[in-house]
Amino acid sequence: MSVQGQAVGRSSQSTTQQSWGRRLLNGESFTALLFVLPSLIGFIVFYAVPAVRGLWISFTNWDLLRPAKFIGIENYVKLFQDKEFWNAMSVTVYYVLLNIPLQTMLAMIIAVMMYRLTKSMLIRAMIILPWLMPPVVVGLIWLWLLDPNIGIVNVALKALGLPMIAFLGLPQWAMPSIAMINIWEYVGYTALLIFAGLQSIPGSVYEAASIDGASESQAFWRVTVPLLRPVLAFVAVTSVIGSFQIFDVIAITTKGGPVNATKVLNWYIYEQAFSRFNMGYATAISIILFLILIFVSMMQMRLMRAGESDM
């Protein structure tokens, strides 16, 4: 290429860059940048930088008191050989399997009842009220309600002639009780999401199904559920992510007990970091949990075809 051609190319490139810069700094683009900038700064400062630093810490031995020492992948090798980690993983999966199906089913029932019977704002506010309460407050309330001696639940059981149960003190009852508390707190929010999805379905679809002779149950399974798939996919993904990250209620009620029956991954991470001062190892577990959530979320979205709609 001749010197003149190279000069023309550089001049054209410079002109293009200047034109792009003027478009960026003028009018709507500049206004949009101003609106995005606070969120971008917040994302970098509070998410991106800590995430990168956390990844580095996972390759170190750090007790929070002395400088971190780089040890390579030793934390990850130790993790896969750690029986406590695998116990925490199995407890977490058990909790997810207890929580998600029942919560989604109850939320669907409540949403359909609201859609068919009432659309009162007061009813919706009452249903979502537990979700608006801080998880710590919810944990304290249920800690008192389920108290084996003076809790109202056991008082009611005694009044009915049934044996009193230490719901949070027995290994076989502890995790189902935690799942019940979580369902009570979040089922209203999930029901409102499904209720919003029901309102987006055109009435003409049900009229067409009725003309074709579809019964109520057939219309529900062959019309309502397929059209709700994007909403149900969103509910499933967010619920699973939230269930894998449960911590507050367990910290208030059982603290991982009894006999490690409620020691989920998040509680094990907390224990390693702030009780045993193994911050590097705790961060490595956090990275593994992050990767697990990404994989599970992608599989859910793919299996449920979250990006498609039958509308």
Describe it.
With 311 residues, the chain is mainly α. It folds into 2 domains: 55 residues; 222 residues, Orthogonal Bundle (MetI-like fold), CATH 1.10.3720. The protein has a two-stranded antiparallel ribbon.
Brief overview:
The chain has helices at about 5-25, 25-55, 75-80, 85-115, 120-130, 135-145, 150-160, 170-200, 205-210, 215-225, 230-245, 250-255, 265-275, 280-305, and strands spanning about 60, 70. About 75% of the residues lie in helices and about 0% in strands.
Protein topology:
Blueprint: H1 3-25, H2 27-57, E1 60-61, E2 69-70, H3 74-80, H4 83-117, H5 121-132, H6 135-145, H7 152-159, H8 171-199, H9 203-211, H10 216-227, H11 229-244, H12 248-253, H13 265-274, H14 279-303
Antiparallel strand pairs: 1-2
Helix pairs in contact: 3-14, 4-8, 4-11, 5-8, 11-14, 13-14
**What is the spatial order of strands in the main beta sheet?**
1-2
Described by strand count, sense and barrel closure, the largest sheet is: 2 strands, antiparallel
Which percent bin holds the helix content?
over 70%
Write down the secondary-structure element order: HHEEHHHHHHHHHHHH
Which architecture of the largest domain would the CATH scheme give at its second level?
Orthogonal Bundle
Features:
311 residues, mainly alpha, MetI-like fold, 2 domains, two-stranded antiparallel sheet, 14 helices, 75% helix, disordered N terminus
